Amino acid sequence: MIDLIKESPFLEKEIILENESSFSISDGFAISKGHTLVIPRREVSSIFDLNDKEYFDCFSLVKEIKNKILKEYSPDGFNIGINDGFYAGQTIQHAHIHIIPRYKDDIDNPRGGVRNILIDNTGYKENIIQVVAGIIEKNQKILIAKRAKGKDLEGLWEYAGGKVEQDETDEESLKRELKEEFEIDVIVEKYLTESLFSYPKKTINLKAFKVKYVAGDFKLNDHEEIKWVSISELKNFKFAPADIPINNYLLKNGL
Questions:
Q1: Which of 4, 112, 209, 213 is 20 to 30 Å apart from 76, CA to CA?
Q2: pTM above 0.90, yes or no
Q3: Per-residue model confidence (pLDDT) at position 4
Q4: Which residues are bridge partners to 135 per DSSP?
């Protein structure tokens, strides 16, 4: 085993996992449960000064740590980050990789992730309309709905849902929208995937959820037509652009 560099302040910490070229420790100023650092054994200032073997070992250990954190803390996501250089915020001149577990509602609006290390002057975060869609399953088929004539994107197919209103959760919004559109009651079971798409006059972030139908007779208050189709049949219909990535997810992963 290669000796650790004695000058590094990271060597005072208890090692969690290690391999030939790198080791991991808990962050001394953790910003979330499980926040961990992966550090190369050779003391270099920049992660890009590592040779190929060292670089590979570091990111191989990142993956191991990620799996360990999943088992211990069950986070909802991760940010993986490197501060490389003084003007990127690096204060310890021994290169290291942050593995930061993220949890639902740890901040009000996580949109943009690592983009938020700088002030956003683009409107990326503020101007995006949050929309939810329900993937309703029955007898191994899912419900798709055709947009009514006279509406934007008329004649295209979509997953029913709508805009998340102020002070609503995604789940509350989806239940309300499906009640308004079809007069049905549902249970929102789980998040599936999301799609960010820019139309000419707006950008939407469309989150898809698996939904269980509970009660009510379907009435078409907002659509021209509905169909129950198998996932494999989705490619036979022309969908609104924002819904296409959801189709791709379903075709690859199912429900």
A1: 213
A2: no
A3: 41
A4: 210
